[in-house]
Request: fold
Amino acid sequence: MGIMNTYVYDSLEVGGGRSVWDSIDEKYPKGGRIDISQYEVGDLIPAGSMVILKSAGGLATIVGSEDVAKLEDVNCLLENDIYIRPGTKAITATCVTKGAIYADRLEFEIPKVVEEKLKGGITIIREVEPKEEIGE
Reply:
């Protein structure tokens, strides 16, 4: 019997325990790998970050709100925070394709184009009404 996959797992508690996910119903099979050269020690990739993942185990590209050209390709959101620690050699991403996320708890605004693209898979929950809806 051989070993199929070997993972080195470590955890570190950083900050509070505020969850951005209400429910997770489906994840992209096997997740993806993140290009570590794009990050420095001490960087934090927050849960709920927008991700482009085209194949199981493939390259997972983290997309920021400013990456306008890539927003239409976003197909999932990051399940957990990823903190880049000293000595980190590889990063993997678990990507959610169906579930419910609290938008107000994210560290960024989900652009409308991404919200529309994920509709039917990921429900965006707002705990605070937008100002234009409450007349301010």
User: Anything to note?
Assistant: The radius of gyration is 16 Å. Strands lie at 21-27, 32-34, 44-45, 50-53, 60-63, 76-78, 82-83, 91-93, 95-102, 122-125.
